[in-house]
Write a structure and sequence with these properties.
6-stranded antiparallel β-sheet, alpha+beta, 306 residues, 4-stranded parallel β-sheet, 25% strand
């Protein structure tokens, strides 16, 4: 175990990194944040803020020398950075898990390979693949960038095959997935923690309402039956196990009008649909991340109140 008094590294200095820093400092740890933004929310309260790029040799060397472990607050940290640090210090989650979540093509293929359901999709990396992709999915559909899209950005709704070429141009002709638009009954998410021994704990399943691609409201517990809730948690654990994951993982699901449970995407970090845990659960997702990074026992995920 990595005990209080130790120094931990945080790659990324946004709001999730800030809330992790609060949880860690409350329990007596020092935090070094690496983020190029001089106004980094996490950097402002960390014990030390390394204002440098994620590939900066001197900054990475300092993290490797001073930190007992390193973690991340968003998925677009270069995998090469994580691998470089992992040669000297535990990095949780590991590069292989973050790398899968960085790219929708890798992510959706990985999910399908585990026999978990997703919305029907096809891959488009160049113009010549558009016609065959349009034959593989039903319309309306959504064209999504394979990398760097978030909160509804990097996505274009296409109502017919003829619109796909223009949408592909709008997205810079970069690799994309063309995904069938689901008639949604609900959107839910599972936040889980998994330790280095392969043990997992799930927070209560959350029901999410999005507006304009951005999370607007989370209701906990989700208004779904116990069997579906259990299936969602088991699917999330299956994904974590397949990646030999260590840390906090968020998995978002669609529930179709037909009642099918479809994996939408996963985030190898704490998640905005888990913010309720700060007040509604005995242990927050941020303290739980700290516990996984430091090989401490799981915190209690019990919901204090709906």
């Amino acid at each position: 175990m990595i005990l209080p008094g130790a120094t931990l590294g945080m790659l990324g200095g946004g709001q999730l990194g800030r809330m992790f820093t609060v949880a860690a400092q409350t329990l007596g740890y020092r935090i070094i944040v690496l983020d190029p933004d001089p106004h980094s929310p996490a950097g402002r309260i960390a014990d030390e803020h390394l204002q440098a790029g994620y590939g900066n040799k001197n900054a990475l060397q300092q993290l490797a020398q001073e930190c007992a472990a390193v973690t991340t607050e968003f998925e677009n940290i270069p995998a090469a950075t994580l691998r470089q640090l992992a040669e000297h210090v535990p990095v949780r989650p590991a590069a292989q898990a973050v790398e899968i979540a960085q790219n929708r093509i890798r992510e959706k293929s990985f999910i399908r390979d585990l026999d978990l359901q997703t919305a029907t999709f096809a891959v488009i990396t160049e113009y010549e693949e558009i016609d065959s992709a349009c034959q593989a999915v039903l319309f309306p559909a959504i064209l999504k960038l394979a990398e760097l899209g978030y909160d509804g950005k990097g996505q274009v709704v296409v109502n017919e095959p003829a619109a796909v070429k223009a949408a592909f141009e709008t997205l810079g002709e970069l690799p994309c997935v063309l995904e069938e638009k689901i008639a949604l009954k609900k959107e839910i998410s599972v936040i889980l923690a998994r330790n280095s021994k392969g043990e997992s704990r799930c927070f209560p399943v959350a029901e999410n309402e999005h507006r304009n691609g951005i999370l607007h409201k989370t209701i906990v517990p989700a208004s779904i039956d116990e069997a579906l809730s259990t299936r969602a948690q088991q699917s999330a654990v299956c994904l974590a196990d397949a990646m030999d994951y260590c840390g906090v993982l968020a998995v978002e699901f669609f529930i179709s009008q037909q009642g099918n449970l479809l994996v939408n995407e996963m985030a190898p970090r704490t998640h905005n649909s888990g913010h309720y845990t700060l007040d509604a659960c005995i242990t927050s997702q941020f303290e739980q991340q700290l516990r996984m990074v430091c090989d401490l026992p799981f915190g209690d995920v019990q919901l204090r109140s709906p």
